[in-house]
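Lab meeting prep.
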Amino acid sequence: MDKKLSKDAYGGINGKDYVPYVSDESKSGGNIAVLIIGVILAALFTASTAYSGMKSGLTVAAGIPGSIIGSAFIAVFAKHKGILAKNLVQGMSSGGESVASGVIFVLPAVLLIGFKITFLEGFIVSAGGVLFGVGIAALVHNYLIVEEHGKLMYPESLAISETLVASEGAGESMKFMGIGFGIGGILTVITGSFLNVANNVISYVNEKFYKWKFEIEVNPLLLGIGFIVGMDVSVAMFAGSILSNFGITPLIGYFAELGKEGANVWNNPDVAINSMQVTHIAGSYVKYMGAGMMLSGGLIGALKLIPTIISSIKETLNAKSSKSGESSSIESLILIGGIVVGFIGGFIISKGNILMAITASILSFFLSLLFVIVAGRLTGTIGTSNLPVSGMTIASIVIVTLLFVVMGWKNTENNRSLLLFGTFIVTAIAMAGGYTQSQKVTFLIGGSKNEMQKYFTIAGVAGTAVVVGTILLLSNQLAATGDNVAFALPQANLMATLTAGIMSGELPWVMVIAGAVMGVVLFLLRLPVMTVAIGFYLPISTTSIILIGALVRFFVEKVSKSQQEKDARVSNGISLSSGLVAGGSIVGLIGIILQVTGVIKGNGPSGFAASNTIAFIILIVLIVATILPILKAKYIEK
C-alpha cells in the first residue's frame, strides 16, 4: 500500500464507491490489548484536557497526538492489528478529550454558585450525554459520512488519516512529544504543586493614578497551547486582556476614586468603592463585563447557526433512509441507554420534583438532538477544534433557564439542577463532534463503523469518570472566585453568571450589558468576538504566555529556509507542544493529588526564589528548551 491516502479521500467520487486505504475483507482492528491501550490514553487525554481547559479556556484536539502515541503502543503490543488498531486508539483518545471539553464547560459552574457535586450526579448526567450524543450522531452516520463525502470535507479527519498512513513519521513525532512531556513535567515539578520551590509568575501592578496590572505565568502547558493555536487566536486573546487590564480597569479605578464615603463594592461590603485595588476591580466588575462579552459572542454564534440548523434538519430528513455497509443493534442500544440514563439522571438531580425531571429532561433531549446534528455537520466543515460548542451551549442554557423561570423554579437549589441538565446537553454536543470526526477517519481508512462506535463509547464513559473525578479533586480550587484564581474557568463562570443572573436578578447588570455591547461592536468590526472575550475574561498572566508560545512558533517559521523545512518544523513543534500540554497538566494534576492526600507539603518559594528575576530565568529556559530541539533536528529535502 502507498503511504498516503488516495485522492478520492478528498472527494470527487460518490461515498458508496470510495475504496478505503485498507480494502481487504477484515475490518477489525480491536482486541483486549487495543482496548486497554485506548482506555489508558482516553483517561490521560481526559485528565489533561480537563486540567488545561479549566486553566486556559482552550482545549487541544487529541486525534493527531492520539494517533502518534497510539501508533507507538500498537507497534509494541498489537503490531498484527496494524493501522486499524491505531485508528481505534486515536478514536478513543478523541473520545476522552471530547467528553472533558464538554463537561468542563458547565459542571464546575455548580461549584461556583456555592454547591457541591456528588460523583454519582456528575457521572450519570455526563454519561447520559455521552450515550445520547453518540446514539443520535450514529443515526445520521450514513448521511454525514457516506452521502456527503467530498461535500463535507472533515478537514481534521483527513489530517488524522494522513498521520495514520504516514507511519514513517510516527517515531520522530513521538520523540518530540517525549521531549515536550519532559520539559513540561520538570518545570511543573519545580514551580507547581509538587515542590513549589520557585516563583513562575512575573508580576507588575500599579495601584496609583492609572491602575493596571501586567503578569506572565511561566507555564509550559500554556506556552504549548500558544504554539498550537498560533498567532491569530493568541493575538486576539491578548488584545482582550490589554483592553481589560489597560483600558477598562484604569477607567473604573478613576471613577471609583471619586466615589463617596460609605459606598461599598456590591459583592464585598468590607471594601469601600473609593479604596478598591486592581484585584477588587478585576474580580468584582471587569470579570462581569467579560461574561457579558462572552454572552453576546455566544448568542451571536447561535444566531449565525440558524441557517445551518435548518439546512441540517432538512437534509437529514431528506437523506436516503437505506443504510449502506454495516448496521447493527448497537447504535439503538446506545441511544436507548442515553435516554434511560438521561431520565434517571433527571430524576436524581431534580431532588424529587417530578415535573422538573420530566419537562427539563425532555427539553434537554430535544436541544441535544438539534445541536448534535448541527455539531456533526459543522465538524465536517471546520473540524472539532473550531466547533462553536460555546454558542450552542449558551443558546441551550438560556432556553432551559427560561423554562425554569416560567415554572417558578428560581432558587439556588433549582439553579444547581439547571446546570446539571446543561452538563448533559453540552456533553452530547461535544461528543457528537468527536464521534463524527473519528467515524470519518474510520471510513477513509477502512475500519469497522460498529467497532469504532463501541470503542469510542467505552472511551467516552471511562472519560466521564475521569473528568468528574478530576473536578471533584480540584473542587476547592475551582470554587474560588475573584482575581488571580488557579483556574479561570471562563466558560463555567459564564454559565454560573448567566443562570444565576436570570433567575435571581442579583448581578451588576450594567457591567454585563456593557460587556455585551462591546461584543456586538467586535462583531460589527468582524473581529472574533468569543476569542477576544475569553482573553478579556482570563488573567493577563494566562494570555501573555499563550502569546509567547505563538511567538515561538512565528520565530520557528521565519528562520526556516524553505516551505518544506517550515512545515516539518511546525509539525515537530506541534508534537513537542502537545507534550508540553500533557506533561504540564498530568504532572500538575499528580502534584495536586499528592498535596490533597498529604504526601507532600510545601510552604512556597521565598527570597530570591520568589522574585520576578527567577521567573524571568525560568521563562528564558522554557523558550530556549522549546526552540532548540525544533531547530536542531535534521530535515531532509524531498
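Slide two material, second protein:
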Amino acid sequence: MTLLAQNLLDACTTAILAVTPNDLRIVSANQASALLLGYAQHDLIGRSILEIETGLQEHFFWADVQNGGNAHISQLETDYRHAQGYFLSVCKSVRSTTWEDQTLCVISFYDISQSKRLERESALTASLLFATLESTADGIVVTDLDGHIRHCNAAMMQIWQWSDTHHSEALFEWIKPQLKNAEEFQNWLDLLYSDPYLESQFAAHLHDGRFYDFNSQAQRLGEAPEGRIFSVHDSTAIKTSEAALRIAHQKAQAASHAKSEFLSHMSHELRTPLNAILGFAQLIYIDTDNPQRLLGNYIINAGRHLLDMINEVLDLASIEAGKLTLRHETVDLAPIVRDCCELMQNLASEKNIHLFIDLPLSGCWVEGDARRIKQILLNFTSNAIKYNRPAGSVTLSISQTQSANWRLMVSDTGYGISESDQAQLFMAFSRVGEQQEEIEGTGIGLAFTRKLAQLMQGAVGVKSTLNVGSEFWVDFPAVTPVAAPSSINSGSTEAKQRQILYIEDDQLSQKLMSRIFEQQRAHYVLVLASTAAEGLLLAQQQIPDLILLDRHLPDATGASLLVQLKMDETTRHIPVIALSGDALAEDIHQAIQLGFDAYLTKPLDIAKALPIIDNALGYIHQGI
C-alpha cells in the first residue's frame, strides 16, 4: 500500500482493516483500529482476522468468503477481542474491493460499548418499572394527551374487570357505568385533558359500595407534557371506617346530649319541691316569734343534707358527662382554709372535736375555682370530723412540696383506714370503715373530689394508720398572684316601693316568694304570672322594676320569653333574674350568655337571694 493511501487511512476516525479473502490475513490497519483494539499498527499486520472476530457466526462468514461467497455486510453488531483479552461491542460493515490487482475485504467498525451499556441500563430500568407497576395493588394507567392508553397494569384491569386492551380508548367508558357519580367523573376527565399540566384527584363511589380514589398528573419529558398518569387506590376500608366513626361520634354526641338533658331535668325536678320545703322552713326559722322555730331548723338541716346529696350526685354526673364548668382564677388558699374552719366549727363542736389551722406567713397562690377548692377542703374536713374519735382533733394546714406545689392537708386523730379500704376510698358510692352505717353519706364525696382536683390540674392523696389517724391532701401547682381590681357599690339604702313580676307555674314556689317578701321586703310588691303569655302581657302593661323568671314554663321556655322581653321597646330595659332548679354550671353560664342579669337556683337560699334581688333594684338592705 502506498504511503499516500496509508496516510489517508490513518486520517480516518473510523477503524479500518483490510483482509485478504484467501488466507484471511490482515494486510492493512489504520491508527483508529490499532487504538480501538489495543495493538500497535505493525502488530496487526499479518494476523488472522479470526483472532479478533472469534464468534461462530464470524467463522461461518469468513469460511464462505474463502470459498468465493459474498463478502458484503452492513451495520452488523458483534464482539471483537481486545489485545488484553476482553471483548468490545462493535458495529461493523464489510465491503469487497480490488487494490493494485488484489482483491481485499475492507472492514470498517466502531465501538458501541457505551450505547450497549446504556441499552442494558435502560432495559433494567424498564424491567424494574414494569415489575413495580405490576406488583402494586393500585391500578396504574398511562395515556397520551388524547386519552388513548399506552400502558395499563394488571391491578387496573382486575379492579375494573377489563380485558379489552385492543380498544385503548374504551377503558374509561367501561368504568363509567360502574360509578354512582359517573357524570362528575366524565367532567373530571374533560377538565384533565383540557389542561395537560393539571394535577387533580377524584373520589369514585361504585354501585357495589366500593370507593376508589383517582389521582392524575402529567407525564413529562423534561418540561413538556407527553401524556397522563392515573393511579387508582381502593379507599373502601378507609371510607367504611370513617363512616363508622361518624356514626359512633353522632351516637356519642346524642348520648352526651341525652345525659345533659337528663341532668338538667333531674336537677329541676328534684330542686323544685325542695325549694318549697327549705323556703318555708327558712321563713319559720327567721320568725323569732314562731314557737316552731326549732322544728324549722330541723327541716332546714335535713333538707340541706338531702340537697347536698343531690348536688354530689349531679356534680359527679356532670364531670362524667364533661359538662362541669370551672372558673380559672388566681386563688389564695389561706382565706379558704380560714373560711372552712369557720364553717366547720359548729359541726366540730357538736362532735366534741378540736379544730386547728397551720398556715404559712406568706400567700399561697394557685390557679383554680375558689368555690370548688373550698368544696374539696370542706369534704375532707367534714369527713375528718365525722369519722374522728371523741375529743379528737383535726388540723387544716398548707405546706409547699418538693415539686413546688401548694398542699392543702387535713389531718385527724381518728381510727385510721386499713390499706385494703384505702384502695376503695376514691371509688364512687363506696363507703369504708366500721362506722359507715352510723354516719350519713352517699360515698360520692371523695370520688367527686378527686375528679374535681384533676380538672384543676391537682392531685389528691391519702396516708392513714390504724388507731392513729389519717391525712388527706390535695396538691395544686403554685402560681404568681395577680392583683384584682377593686369594686364600688353605689346602691341606695332608701326603701322605695318596687314592683316585681314573678313568672312561675309552680304554686308552692309562688306562695313561698310571696311569704318571703311579706316578711323580709314589705316594700316590694309581688305580681304573679303562671304562664309565659300571661307574664309577657303583665310585663307590657305594668312595666315592673324587676322580673323573676322560671326557665321551665308550660307554654314556653324562660329563654324564649326573655328574647321577647328584650325585643319589646317597653320591656327591654327591665332587669330579668332567672330562678330555676337547673343548677348545673353549664345551665347558669348559658343563661347569663342569653342575657339574664343574674341567676338564682332552687332551693332558694333566702339570705343569699335577697341581696341579689336588692342589687338588681339598686337597693341596699341592712340585715337579711
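Talking points for slide two:
The chain has a mean pLDDT of 85.
The radius of gyration is 49 Å.
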